[in-house]
């Protein structure tokens, strides 16, 4: 099931996405069956359906925290002159960094070198702590596309990455959550990023140094994850600059495409 979060006539709801994507935006012909309740508990489909092109898609979740994993693809670590870490290397992006599909990425005033980073995002289904490897599948609601927007010059200049990775609009998520992927499938998906239609990144999630199971085990050894929290799993090689006016699209096999435009701060 593909679960989207959306607004219509001032109301916010979740809906199951039905149909096959088509058209230039990949949304033609899709409809939303409005969900009774929330996807983190038992829910029913209402049978009330609205065309997806009549609603505004929102970030598929509003996480209490986004836990991101750095340098989890060897070629990406190498392209920035770094060695891959021996164990998962986590950092945070605040909830205020999250935006949805079609929302603008606002170029930060304190940077002159902003990069895209296409990533697979894992959405957590339930409160969990110290999750054993064999139970990881039980705490995953599904997967979505993410773009770990990074002020690269600030990242190089500051030891902590809070500003470089956590500024407002630096974490686009969407367009929806795909719940029908199992761990085996999610561990070998094609992932790409394009800027203005030009291919910049192309990799597979199977290139991760530390797989999804190891990431969740490592993170939950230290902290409790809540329903709707998001884990970013790292980016393949090919990261590069964005400028105001650019349109960046992250596509993940079996999930969909997340598209955002970069704008100057007003």
UniProtKB/TrEMBL annotation:
It holds the Pfam family FAA_hydrolase. InterPro entries: Fumarylacetoacetase-like_C, Fumarylacetoacetase_C_sf, Rv2993c-like_N. One of its GO terms (molecular function) is hydrolase activity. Keywords: Hydrolase, Metal-binding. Residues 65-262 form the Fumarylacetoacetase-like C-terminal domain. Gene3D superfamilies: FAH (2.30.30.370), Fumarylacetoacetase-like, C-terminal domain (3.90.850.10). Residues 1-60 form the Rv2993c-like N-terminal domain. The keyword Plastid does not apply. This is Fumarylacetoacetate hydrolase family protein.
């Amino acid at each position: 099931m593909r679960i989207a979060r959306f607004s219509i006539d001032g109301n916010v709801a979740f809906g199951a996405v039905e149909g096959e994507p088509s058209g230039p935006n990949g949304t033609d012909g899709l409809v939303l069956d409005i969900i009774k309740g929330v996807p983190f508990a038992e829910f029913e489909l209402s049978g009330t359906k609205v065309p997806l092109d009549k609603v505004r898609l929102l970030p598929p979740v509003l996480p209490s925290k986004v836990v991101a994993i750095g340098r989890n693809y060897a070629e990406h670590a190498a392209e920035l002159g770094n060695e891959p870490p021996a164990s998962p290397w986590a950092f945070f992006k605040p909830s205020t960094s999250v935006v949805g599909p079609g929302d603008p990425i606002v170029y930060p005033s304190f940077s002159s070198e902003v990069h895209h980073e296409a990533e697979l995002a894992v959405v957590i289904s339930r409160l969990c702590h110290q999750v054993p490897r064999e139970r990881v599948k039980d705490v995953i609601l599904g997967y979505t596309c993410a773009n770990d927007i990074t002020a690269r010059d600030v990242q190089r200049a500051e030891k902590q990455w809070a500003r470089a990775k956590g500024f407002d609009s630096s974490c686009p998520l969407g367009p929806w959550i795909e719940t029908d992927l199992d761990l085996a499938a999610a561990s070998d998906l094609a992932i790409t990023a394009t800027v203005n239609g030009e291919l910049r990144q192309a990799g597979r999630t199977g290139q991760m140094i530390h797989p999804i199971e190891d990431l969740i085990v490592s993170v939950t050894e230290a902290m409790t994850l809540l329903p709707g929290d998001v884990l970013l799993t790292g980016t393949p090689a090919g990261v590069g600059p964005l400028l105001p006016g650019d349109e960046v699209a992250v596509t993940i096999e079996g999930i969909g495409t997340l598209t955002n435009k970069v704008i100057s701060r007003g």
